[in-house]
Amino acid sequence: MCIATADFANTGLYRAVYFDGPQSDRNREGDEVPSWVVYIGDEDAEPVSHLQHFRSYQIAEQVARQLASTRRLDFVHDASPA
Known about the structure:
Blueprint: E1 16-26, E2 32-41, E3 52-54, H1 57-71, E4 74-79
Parallel strand pairs: 1-4
Antiparallel strand pairs: 1-2, 2-3
């Protein structure tokens, strides 16, 4: 008989903080501008929370790193500067 310990216990579904972009967006004047997205997603990178959009790469990266740190989640960095 095997009794699961904390090291082997099922911790639930996989979650990670995803940082992706740039994506094409439009500003109020209709000009094309880059944007980055930060969200919590599952193992298939499907969002399980709302998406946060940013027009600044640096701010988006800071928010993503902080979110991953405070939630103790993996950080998946798939973004690049514009």
